């Protein structure tokens, strides 16, 4: 009886989260580092963006397209949001829901760039958008500190023959 | 004849090296001498750093009308001018976004903004984007504090205004303020650069 109830509850939870869209976890830099430096074959496409950054918002569909194109390949798209952590529920979550974003979104609550950027991308000024394509195991690292051009992500990913 | 060919080759090599050096450079570093510029202010007059022979330096702010981070910092830029203009470090604001890509940053829009907010400092239009490129400005806002050195100005600080763009109240490192205060006291700048979050400058399509 209990197990039936359990399954029912889990189903209810899953269904409700599907309706709500994904929830956006608020993370610190150390957690981000763990997320993108796993020693596996996955190619991480990490895009730093903000809801207030027009060029970022404009290029988001390209990352969503990548997620679909390479759904069967070891490619993981991670959208690292840089909005104010305080605006998670008022801005970021509604934005992700309204745009029906399927790629994984995390809110990096680290306003003081000088404490962490050197550990990730010393060449980055802090201007958004910024994209990193990385795989620590295969020593892959592409740094793009401007909006991506149409088709640019595909040609970059394709050269790694995943 | 051989000598001429050799000289030509050397000249070519030097040219290539120089060209590479130029393309590899990404704007000013702390300590560099600033090349003066002449840009149009919102009042229609041209402004250069050399215009004010009595200043000790300038707080140069690459900023714009449209970027939310620049807007969040606008009050702080105005406050910096209020705090330091009388002490010899006035603010000069420069807007370098391509107005075609960012219509809200057109010269007319700049004039409206400066008027609405009563800017007490020049708000210059870097239409060709040459000044932003020479400085190596990448985002808005992006600050360059320059200090007088005879007839020239040298870069003393590059980067963010402070360490929290969301909220002035929680910023506990006021980079520009500290740098200018140290310069006024004749000290070395403790933190000569700090990264600035912001919108990338909207460059003209190459």
TrEMBL record, chain A:
Its main location: other. PROSITE patterns: THIOREDOXIN_1, THIOREDOXIN_2. GO terms for biological process: cytochrome complex assembly. The keyword DNA repair does not apply. GO terms for cellular component: cell envelope. Keywords: Cytochrome c-type biogenesis, Disulfide bond, Redox-active center. It is found in: Cell envelope. Residues 3-162 form the Thioredoxin domain. One of its GO terms (molecular function) is antioxidant activity. This is Redoxin family protein. It comes from the Bacteria.
UniProtKB/TrEMBL annotation, chain B:
The keyword Signal applies. It comes from the Bacteria. CDD domains: PRX_like1. Residues 1-26 form the signal peptide. InterPro entries: AhpC/TSA (IPR000866), PRX-like1 (IPR047262), Thioredoxin-like_sf (IPR036249), Thioredoxin_domain (IPR013766). Coiled coil: none annotated. The keyword Signal applies. GO terms for molecular function: antioxidant activity; oxidoreductase activity. Residues 28-185 form the Thioredoxin domain. Keywords: Signal. It holds the Pfam family AhpC-TSA. This is Thioredoxin family protein. It comes from Spirosoma foliorum.
């Amino acid at each position: 009886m209990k197990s039936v109830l359990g399954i029912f509850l889990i189903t209810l939870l899953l269904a409700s989260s599907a309706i709500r869209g994904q929830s956006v976890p608020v993370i610190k830099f150390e957690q981000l580092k763990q997320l993108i430096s796993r020693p596996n074959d996955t190619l991480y496409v990490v895009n730093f963006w903000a809801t207030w950054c027009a060029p970022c918002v404009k290029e988001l569909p390209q990352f969503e397209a990548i997620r679909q194109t390479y759904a069967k390949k070891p490619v993981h798209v991670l959208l690292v949001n840089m909005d104010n952590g305080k605006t998670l529920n008022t801005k970021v979550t509604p934005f992700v829901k309204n745009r029906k974003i399927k790629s994984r979104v995390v809110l990096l609550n680290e306003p003081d760039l000088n404490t962490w950027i050197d550990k990730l991308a010393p060449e980055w000024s802090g201007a958004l958008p910024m994209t990193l394509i990385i795989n620590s195991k295969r020593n892959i690292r592409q740094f793009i500190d401007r909006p991506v051009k149409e088709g640019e992500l595909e040609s970059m990913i394709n050269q790694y023959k995943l | 004849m051989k000598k001429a060919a050799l000289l030509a080759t050397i000249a070519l090599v030097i040219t290539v090296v120089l060209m590479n050096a130029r393309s590899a450079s990404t704007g000013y570093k702390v300590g560099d001498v600033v090349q003066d510029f002449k840009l149009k202010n919102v009042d229609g007059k041209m402004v250069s750093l050399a215009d004010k022979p009595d200043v000790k330096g300038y707080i140069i702010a690459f900023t714009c009308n449209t970027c939310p981070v620049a807007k969040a910092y606008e009050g702080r830029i105005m406050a910096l001018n209020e705090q330091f203009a009388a002490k010899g470090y006035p603010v000069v604001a420069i807007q370098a976004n391509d107005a075609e890509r960012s219509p809200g940053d057109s010269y007319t829009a700049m004039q409206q903004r400066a008027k609405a907010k009563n800017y007490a400092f020049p708000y210059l239009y870097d239409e060709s984007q040459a000044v932003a490129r020479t400085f190596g400005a990448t985002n808005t806002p992006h600050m360059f504090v320059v200090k007088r050195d005879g007839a020239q100005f040298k870069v003393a600080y590059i980067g963010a205004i402070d360490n929290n763009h969301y909220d002035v109240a929680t910023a506990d490192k006021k980079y520009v303020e500290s740098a200018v205060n140290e310069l006024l006291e004749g000290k070395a700048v403790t933190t000569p650069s700090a990264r600035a979050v912001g919108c990338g400058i909207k460059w003209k399509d190459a």
